[in-house]
Specification:
Blueprint: H1 2-5, H2 10-30, H3 43-46, H4 59-64, H5 69-83, H6 92-106, H7 112-121, H8 126-140, H9 142-155, E1 177-178, E2 184-185, E3 188-194, E4 203-208, E5 213-214, E6 217-219, E7 222-236, E8 242-245, E9 249-252, E10 258-262, E11 268-275, E12 278-280, H10 286-293
Antiparallel strand pairs: 1-3, 2-5, 3-4, 4-11, 6-12, 7-8, 7-9, 7-10, 7-11
């Protein structure tokens, strides 16, 4: 709502805050809980997110410093410098979502292309944007959705069509079942190829949809990845990410914290030969993942 305040009229912001506060108080009274005892839903996740210095925005000064220097200062230093940088409270991806919805609702289409591109850079996929605008059309109006979609086509052009879509049915091995969502971000499938063998070593076929990755994790003995299709990433803690393609082999040492998954625009399939037990850690943040894909 703090971000929304800069994109909508101030009285609307105060009205929403008043309703939000009233609902919170009613819930607290119903459950006999003091308001300051209600935990934040995202506090556990947000506490784990690394603080990353955002790219400095200078659009205000670049375009308006001569005619409106104070406005340019507020735009660059307050809105983008202070509000957008508060990623522990709300991620850059979610701030882009709020901004895009607000601009469409207000019919502010001259600013929409910039923020659609910013949302794309912050991890909003074309499929998500299309679904958001389709849903919003029933509340903000059909003509606004039409206008928005024409701008979406400019930002998310045909080059954004995912690569290696033939892998959506996996490779020579079965696609399998959806993975445990507690350990992955996005859509992925797991098929156990071998569980009972002389080496007592499970072998799994894992298929990642574009932009899908698993959380940070480690294996107490180690793991081997055999890439069979598509394009993906492998990254160890505090080390640069390695781009993977069909035919690549990754030998992961014991107890090394790492993650792996698809690039943002390609399906990705690998075999995983896992030795010992796995230990799961925090998710890979949208910011860190988007930095890898730049």
């Amino acid at each position: 709502m703090t971000s929304l305040n800069f994109l909508s009229r101030l009285e609307k912001f105060f009205a929403v805050v008043a309703i939000f506060s009233a609902v919170n108080i009613a819930v607290a009274q119903q459950n006999s809980i003091q308001q300051n005892q209600i935990p934040s839903k995202n506090s556990a996740v947000n506490s784990k997110m690394k603080e990353i210095s955002p790219k400095k925005v200078t659009a205000g000064r670049d375009q308006l410093s001569a005619i409106a220097p104070k406005f340019a200062e507020l735009n660059d230093d307050v809105l983008f410098g202070q509000v957008w940088s508060r990623e522990q409270e709300l991620s850059a991806r979610d701030r882009s979502l709020v901004t895009i919805v607000s601009l469409i609702a207000g019919g502010n289409f001259p600013q929409l292309k910039f923020h659609l591109q910013k949302g794309k850079d912050n991890g909003l996929s074309k499929q998500e944007i299309v679904e958001i605008i389709t849903h919003q059309a029933f509340y903000s109006g059909w003509p606004k959705a039409w206008s928005a979609f024409n701008i979406v086509k400019e930002v998310y052009d045909e080059s954004d069509t995912p690569k290696n879509t033939n892998l959506s049915n996996s490779t020579i091995f079965p696609l399998g079942e959806p993975v445990n969502p507690d350990w992955f971000k996005g859509k992925a499938w797991l098929s156990m190829i071998s569980t009972e063998n002389p080496f007592n070593t499970p072998i799994a076929n894992v298929t990642f949809a574009p932009a899908t990755r698993n959380h940070w994790h480690s294996h107490n003995i180690g793991q081997i990845l055999l890439v069979t299709g598509g394009e993906g990433w492998y990254q160890e803690w505090e080390k640069p990410a390695q781009k993977l393609k069909a035919g690549d082999v990754v030998n992961i040492p014991a107890n090394v914290k790492h993650w792996h998954g698809a690039t943002k625009d390609s399906w990705f399939v690998h075999l995983a030969i896992t030795l010992g037990e796995s230990k799961w850690f925090e998710p890979v943040t949208d910011k860190d993942y988007n930095n890898v894909n730049q």
